[in-house]
Amino acid sequence: MSMMKRLADSASKESSWQSSLRKNEPCSCLSLCLRVIFLDHTYLHIFIALQDLWETEWSKSGRSTSFTEVDLTAAGAAQVSSAAAVLVGSGKFIDPCHVAHVFVSPRKRAQATMDLLLPSSSDISKEKITFTEVITEWNYGDYEGKTNEEIRRLRKDKGWDKEQEWTVWSDGLEEVTNRLDKLIVHIKTIQKPLMDGKEPADIVLVAHGLILRCFAKRWLGYRLSDGIPMMLEPGAVGILSYRDNNINKPAIHIGTQIRMT
């Protein structure tokens, strides 16, 4: 099964909290989980924030979006603001006073997400924000603008379901690997002198679903072609870190010390 077919199949299955956010309704499961979590900032974190939940005209009709510039709808902007109230702030999942730098995809929808998620009134100055093509979405090539059904029909017509999984992409494994590896080196350069936790050291990435999954693979040293089961739901925030606070031991932070309020 192709990567895009797997993504298309999973995209059609929407969880209850995702449905609530799409309708701009309160989401009890998300708020209950995150409002009682306070991250242990003894460790450095790399937060990966997924833009692809927030509504655009294309997402409303189920069209795949990578390089095309599509604005958030008014409903999409309201969704981001609602999520930011839960996710971002003093003592919350992303605490601006602990952030050293933010890297944002230059796509308009990602920039709009960042502006609403981390408003200018927060403790994150403009000097700490970089817009970079390094984390722009993997170019969907022939899949751009197509619905899941159109993608399945295209693959069947061209006989791609049996082989040639990557041939539709206009940028390949090597190109994406190289650009992500350069970003990882840059992030480690920022965080290495901050490992003692005395100054803000967290990194935030605001980007898109496929490229962030690829980033997580490269963070752990896996090839993009390696079949590693992982889930990053639209609108989610994941955490990467370092084992033993050692810059040479990148890890996925699957659990963190919490205290209840």
Automatic annotation (TrEMBL):
GO terms for molecular function: sedoheptulose-bisphosphatase activity. InterPro entries: His_Pase_superF_clade-1 (IPR013078), His_PPase_superfam (IPR029033), PGM_Phosphatase (IPR050275). Pfam families: His_Phos_1. This is Phosphoglycerate mutase. GO terms for biological process: ribose phosphate biosynthetic process. Gene3D superfamilies: Phosphoglycerate mutase-like.
